[in-house]
Design goal:
The protein is α+β, with helices and mostly antiparallel strands. The chain has one domain. It has 1 helix and 6 strands; from the N terminus they run H-E-E-E-E-E-E.
């Protein structure tokens, strides 16, 4: 009577195949961890982009608004450490380059007590300055798993800083070449105030303090023009 069985070669091949399958499990787990990490990074990029857009929708400074209600408009403010070419013409409500006409961009009246940029204001968030030092976290929901995820980055920290940067350039030139120098940023104080504020969103990991990316945007002290509307008949 003959009995079916494995030959030695078949047994060896079976062991090799099983070994390969077992060896591939860590690689599969590693790829899964990478996908989770990339998903978290993509979420943080989206969150940072959304937050930057939100910050840029706020007014340049606490003192920028002039007037109240429907007649309120943002004005250009005096600063302490800006390029002198951007200062107001002495005794005027305009700087060089402003159009002398109604409803156009201009500076706040000389008699106004709030005509100077005030980066040290406190209270509710109502201008770009107030986001300085703000932080938030993009994270994976742990739930019943606690901290037993098989990947390292469970949360990414998003920190916001607002600084003054140099506004110096040759504004009298026909072709103005301007470079945003992000290395010489200055803290938000009245003495450091220029006509350009830099908003910086830096994302770091909670594991090794690495910085996957940084978003930067710039907002300028240019006020706004009033919309010209058709007078009612």
């Amino acid at each position: 009577m003959k009995r079916a069985g494995f030959s030695l070669i078949e047994l060896v091949l079976s062991i090799v195949i099983i070994a390969i399958a077992v060896m591939s499990i860590p690689m599969m787990l590693q790829e899964s961890a990478k996908n989770d990490r990339y998903s978290l990074l993509q979420e943080s990029i989206l969150a940072a982009r959304t937050k930057m857009g939100n910050i840029l929708s706020f007014r340049w400074d606490e003192n920028s608004p002039d007037g109240s209600g429907s007649s309120q408009i943002l004005r250009v403010l005096d600063v302490s450490n800006g390029d002198a070419e951007l200062d107001r013409v002495t005794g005027s409500i305009r700087r060089v380059g402003h159009i002398f006409a109604n409803k156009r961009r201009r500076m706040k009246d000389l008699t106004s007590a709030t005509r100077v940029s005030d980066p040290s204001d406190t209270g509710s968030i109502d201008d770009i300055d107030d986001f300085d030092g703000n932080s938030s976290t993009v994270y994976m929901q742990n739930g019943a798993f606690g901290n037993s995820f098989d990947y390292l980055d469970q949360a990414l920290e998003m920190n916001t800083t607002v600084s003054f940067v140099s506004d110096s350039a040759n504004y009298a030139s026909q072709n103005i070449n301007f470079t945003f120098d992000t290395t010489t940023k200055a803290a938000l104080t009245l003495a450091n105030s220029t006509n350009i504020k830099m908003i910086e969103l830096k994302v770091t990991t909670g594991v090794n303090a690495a910085t996957p990316f940084i978003f930067r945007a710039f907002s300028s002290n240019i006020g706004q023009s009033r919309l010209i509307t058709k007078d009612a008949l």
